[in-house]
């Protein structure tokens, strides 16, 4: 199998390093990341329809209204996260198309692909005759308007935190007539979140380690206040030392030194050559040897799809981060995830 150099993944879409100028690469990364970095429509807070009966008129996360006359039977997903939720709801047989980045569960790989992150093949979409298309924010500028103009019902989801991810599951359940399954998944997610937050909500600031989450290292990129990974750090009992900005801010090495993080958690995608580059950089960069995380051996790698993809599996990412940030509070997660944790002792993703 051909292997390529990858900058990790956000929302399941690979950040591929091609022979481009630095500015072009940064713009490419930013455009992919906007799927979680953009704002929901004013006045919407997880705009799932209240009704679970058809026909229904519903408003999506961008404030657009779609109309569904009956339970959709042919669904196209334009993002790995939406595809994963559909399969979790038992709707794999109704997914008639997805993207080349949809890799979980394994059955999603075998579905007809309608394109990548910004090159959706409209003719392919037409040929698959969908009655519902699930999109993400990155599609809003040209793909979604084009599909809507062609008469398709396109629902866009833009979750920024764990609560909104739970709401996305419930929303897709309502849109597809699988509310019962969605409520079961949502309840499990909420219960597992509570296990963590019951122990971290009462922590004082001086009991919360300074945490730096790293998406990429050249330039150093972290996650802003409106991203799921930022919410994971807070709920796991840490304090993010990334700039208090939205989106995915870049950080100078000097700023990292000044912030002196006590825990560093790096995106790692073992499926791609170079997927562990951020971890290796933070492990081996001489100028970073004096930060608290390096001194205490708390530079970790974490599976990118468990912290960046807004799906039920992100709860594993929360538990994994809790084990890294507060092992004394969560010995059960240390035991559960110990074989998965990638620390300064190794550079091999497991």
As for the CATH topology of the largest domain, it is: Rossmann fold
Strand order of the largest sheet: 6-5-7-8
Question: What general form does the structure show?
Answer: globular
Q: Total number of helical segments?
A: 14
Architecture of the largest domain, CATH level 2?
Answer: 3-Layer(aba) Sandwich
**Content-based structural category:** alpha/beta
- Strand tally is 15
Beta content: 15-25%
Query: According to CATH, what is the class of the largest domain?
Result: Alpha Beta
The percent range for helix content is 25-40%
Describe the structure.
The structure is a single chain. The chain is an alpha/beta fold and 350 residues long. The radius of gyration is 20 Å and the shape is globular. The chain starts with 5 loop residues before the first strand and ends in a 13-residue tail after the last helix. The N terminus and C terminus are likely disordered.
Descriptive labels:
single chain; 350 residues; alpha/beta; Rossmann fold; 2 domains; 14 helices; globular; disordered N terminus
């Amino acid at each position: 199998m051909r292997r390529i150099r990858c900058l990790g993944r956000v929302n399941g879409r690979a950040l591929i390093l091609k022979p481009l100028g630095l500015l072009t690469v940064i713009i490419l990364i930013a455009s992919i990341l906007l799927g979680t970095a953009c704002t929901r429509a004013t006045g919407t807070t997880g705009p799932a329809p209240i009704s679970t009966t058809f026909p229904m008129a519903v408003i999506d996360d961008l404030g657009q209204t779609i109309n569904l006359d009956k339970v959709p039977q042919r669904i196209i997903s334009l993002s790995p996260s939406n595809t994963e939720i559909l399969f979790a709801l038992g709707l794999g047989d109704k997914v008639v198309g997805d993207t080349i980045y949809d890799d979980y569960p394994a059955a999603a790989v075998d579905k007809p692909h309608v394109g990548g992150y910004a090159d959706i093949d409209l003719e392919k979409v037409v040929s698959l005759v969908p009655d519902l298309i699930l999109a993400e924010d990155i599609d809003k500028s040209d793909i979604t308007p084009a599909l809507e103009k062609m008469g398709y019902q396109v629902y866009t989801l833009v979750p920024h935190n764990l609560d909104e991810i739970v709401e996305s599951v419930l929303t897709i359940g309502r849109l597809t007539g699988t509310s019962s399954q969605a409520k079961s998944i949502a309840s499990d997610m909420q219960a597992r979140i509570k296990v963590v937050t019951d122990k971290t909500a009462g922590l004082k600031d001086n009991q919360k380690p300074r945490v730096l989450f790293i998406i990429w290292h050249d330039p150093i990129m972290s996650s802003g206040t409106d991203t799921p990974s930022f919410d994971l750090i807070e709920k796991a009992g840490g304090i993010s030392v990334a700039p208090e900005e939205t989106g995915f801010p870049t950080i100078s090495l000097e700023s990292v030194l000044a912030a002196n993080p006590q825990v560093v958690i790096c995106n790692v995608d073992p499926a791609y050559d170079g997927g562990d580059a951020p971890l290796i950089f933070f492990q081996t960069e001489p100028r970073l040897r004096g930060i608290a995380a390096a001194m205490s051996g708390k530079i970790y790698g974490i599976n990118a799809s468990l912290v960046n993809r807004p799906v039920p599996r992100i709860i594993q990412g929360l538990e994994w981060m809790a084990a890294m940030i507060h092992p004394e509070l969560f010995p059960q997660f240390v035991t559960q995830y110990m074989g998965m944790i990638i620390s300064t002792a190794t550079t091999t993703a497991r």
